[in-house]
Design a protein that fits this description.
The chain has 381 residues and is α/β, with parallel strands linked by helices. The chain has helices at 12-16, 50-61, 71-97, 104-123, 142-151, 168-182, 201-218, 233-237, 242-256, 282-291, 309-325, 341-354, 364-376, and strands spanning 3-5, 8-10, 34-44, 129-138, 154-161, 190-193, 223-229, 264-269, 296-300, 330-334. Helix 4 (104-123) packs across helix 12, helix 7 packs antiparallel against helix 12 (341-354) and helix 10 runs parallel beside helix 11. It is found in: Cytoplasm.
Length: 381
C-alpha cells in the first residue's frame, strides 16, 4: 500500500531498493585526516595464460563504455565467439612482453606510484600524502583500493587517471567505477579528478626530451610516427574530445622538436571489428611508408605514459614486421615515459597543482583539543 507524505509517494518497490551502506571503520576523535592520490590505469591479466586473460577480457570488453553495441547482441558475440578464441591469442602476446616482476603496465604503474610518493615527500615534506594505484580492469581493483583508503582515514582523494587524452572509454569509465563505489559509502570523502593532461607543459616537455634522447643515441629518422590508441569514428561524431586532444598533443610535441609537417604524422592503432575508426590507421601508415622505401621510421606512443601490450607487442613488434615486409628498412620504437625523472617531476607538479588547498592539516594540539571535547560530550573514541 503506498505511503503518502510531504516528500511524495513511497511504495513497496522503493522500500525494496533501500541502500545498505558499507560499514564505516571505527572513528577516533582527534585523528588527523589524510590526503591521498590514486593513480588509475587500464589494467592487465594476472598472468600471461588463457585462464587469466579470459576473465580480464570479459570485464574489459563487457564494459558498455568500451563497446557501444546493443547489450544483447554484444553478449552473444562476446561470449559465443570472442571469449572462445581471443584469450589464447592474447595470452601468447602477453607472454612475449611479460617481465620477471609481472605485466609491464602494472610494473611501471607501481613504480610510478612509488616514485611519485618520493617526489611529493621531497617537494612537500611537511604535508604527507598517500599515493596508491588501481586498475580499471583486473587487480588491484578500484573498489579494493578505495576501501583501503577508507580504512586509512583518507578523507580527501585526488583521482589521477594516467591517460593524457580524455576518452569516455578510458578516463570516463574509470570515473564511473569511482563514483559508483562512493554511492555505497555513508561517509563520502572529498574528491577531485584530473580529466586530462594532453597539453600540460611538463608532459609535453618530457615526451619531447624522451624522443630527443633516443635520437641522440641512434640518430634521427626520416619520419616520426606518433601513434595513439584508436577509437571508433562514431565516438568523435558523438562528441568525444579524444581525437582533438591527440591531434593537439602531436602538434605540441612536433613544435617542441621543431619538426615540419612532413617530418611527422599522427596515427591511430588497435582497430577492432569492422566499423570505421578514427584515421589514419597506424598499420596503413607503416605499410605505406614501407612501400615508399622509407629508410627509417621511428614510432612513439604519446597516449601511454607506461609501456604495455599495445606499445611493446603491437607497435614495437608487429609494427616493425609490417613496415619491413612492405619494403621499409630501419624501424625504431621509442619507449614510453615510464619512470623518466623529468616525467616524474612533471607528474608531481601536476598532482601538487590539483592538491592546492588540501594539504593544510590541523596541528597536534588542535587535534588533541578536539578529541578532549568529544570525550567530554560522551564520545567513546
Amino acid at each position: 500500500m503506498p505511503i503518502v507524505g510531504m516528500y511524495g509517494t513511497l511504495d513497496s518497490r522503493s522500500l525494496e531498493n533501500d541502500m545498505t551502506y558499507l560499514t564505516e571503520p571505527t572513528f577516533s576523535h582527534g585523528t588527523p585526516e589524510k590526503c591521498a592520490v590514486l593513480l588509475l590505469n587500464l589494467g592487465t591479466p594476472d598472468a600471461p595464460t588463457p585462464q587469466a586473460v579470459k576473465p580480464y577480457l570479459r570485464e574489459f570488453l563487457g564494459d558498455p563504455r568500451v563497446v557501444e553495441i546493443p547489450r544483447l547482441i554484444w553478449w552473444f558475440i562476446l561470449n559465443g565467439i570472442i571469449l572462445n578464441v581471443r584469450p589464447k591469442q592474447s595470452a601468447i602476446k602477453y607472454a612475449s612482453i611479460w617481465m620477471p616482476e609481472g605485466s609491464p603496465l602494472k610494473v611501471h604503474t607501481e613504480r610510478q606510484a612509488n616514485l611519485l610518493r618520493d617526489q611529493l615527500k621531497e617537494r612537500a615534506p611537511d604535508m604527507p600524502v598517500e599515493v596508491h594505484y588501481a586498475m580499471r580492469y583486473g587487480n588491484p581493483s578500484i573498489p579494493s583500493v578505495l576501501h583501503e583508503l577508507k580504512t586509512r582515514n583518507c578523507q580527501r582523494i585526488l583521482i589521477m587517471p594516467m591517460y593524457p587524452q580524455y576518452a569516455a572509454s578510458a578516463t570516463g569509465t574509470a570515473f564511473d567505477v569511482v563514483f559508483n563505489e562512493l554511492t555505497k559509502q555513508r561517509n563520502i570523502p572529498a574528491l577531485r579528478t584530473v580529466k586530462h593532461f594532453h597539453d600540460h607543459p611538463g608532459y609535453i616537455a618530457a615526451t619531447a626530451q624522451n624522443i630527443r634522447d633516443h635520437w641522440t643515441l641512434h640518430g634521427r629518422p626520416d619520419k616520426l610516427v606518433m601513434s595513439f590508441h584508436g577509437l571508433p569514428r562514431y565516438t568523435l561524431d558523438k562528441g568525444d574530445p579524444y581525437h582533438c586532444e591527440c591531434q593537439k598533443t602531436g602538434r605540441l610535441i612536433a613544435e617542441a622538436l621543431h619538426l615540419d609537417t612532413d617530418q611527422y604524422i599522427v596515427s591511430f592503432q588497435s582497430r577492432f571489428g569492422r566499423t570505421e575508426w578514427i584515421q589514419p590507421y597506424t598499420t596503413a601508415v607503416l605499410k605505406e611508408l614501407g612501400m615508399k622505401k622509407t629508410r627509417r621510421v621511428d614510432v612513439v606512443c604519446p597516449g601511454f605514459v607506461a609501456d604495455c601490450l599495445e606499445t611493446l607487442e603491437e607497435i614495437a613488434m608487429e609494427g616493425q614486421v609490417e613496415f619491413k615486409q612492405a619494403g621499409g628498412e630501419e624501424y625504431h620504437y621509442i619507449p614510453c615515459l615510464n619512470e623518466r625523472p623529468d616525467w616524474m617531476q612533471a607528474l608531481s607538479g601536476l598532482v601538487l597543482d590539483n592538491l592546492y588547498g588540501w594539504l593544510d592539516n590541523p596541528q597536534p594540539a588542535q587535534l588533541e583539543q578536539s578529541r578532549l571535547r568529544a570525550l567530554a560530550m560522551g564520545a567513546s573514541h
